[in-house]
Amino acid sequence: MIEEPKFDFGQAVRVVRTIRNDGSYSGKRTGEQLVRSGITGFVRNVGTFLQNQVIYEVHFLEQDIVVGIRESELQDAKDPWIETRFQSRDHVINEIPLSIQGQIVIPAECKGRVVKTIALDSNQIFYHVSFNGRIFQVPEATLSLDDVACEKSASGCSSCAMAEAC
Question: What is the pLDDT of residue 79?
Fold first, then answer.
């Protein structure tokens, strides 16, 4: 059973996670980013998918793009928003070595890929980052954006001193 829609026609909403093309948006590659998290748009229409999911047609004016988005991927634009530096799937470099029980397992300057954002408040932002298939919770301040995405797999590392450890 579908509950009443949370947002109304014309209401300003914010995307809470980056929206990528699932193959249903023509003119863009599957997996290509459509809307980055934090961007606001306006509800143009409300519908359902598989008779159990509320889907909103949202127009993002600055990007001039209209996208269908699940209710769980939206919040009221008036609600507080914590801005983060990185998004899911971003390629990052750790600035400090990562260790487990005092043993360095990922040296500094290794490439990883953001899996999840954990924003407790504006002073406590963490990411789940994959380094060679291992997930670490890393504070935002210890990461930088990898401007040159790794040519290997998303969690590979070819530039650090201990590439096999990354």
Answer: 87
- The counts of H helices and E strands in the chain are 0, 14
CB 58 within 8 A of CB 41: yes
pLDDT digits (tens, 9 = 90+) for 71-93: 888 989 998 888 888 887 889 99
Answer yes or no: do 155 and 128 share one domain.
yes
Closest residue by Cα to residue 19 from 75, 74, 85, 64: 74
CB-count burial class (<10 Å; 0-12, 13-18, 19+) for 142: middle
Contacts for 138 with CB less than 8 Å, ≥ 6 apart: 94, 98, 126, 127, 128, 129
Residues 93, 113 contacting (CB under 8 angstroms):
no
Torsion sign, CA atoms 159, 85, 101, 135: negative
- CATH number for 147: 2.30.30
Q: What is the residue range of 126's domain?
A: 91-165
Q: Residues 69, 111: one domain?
A: no
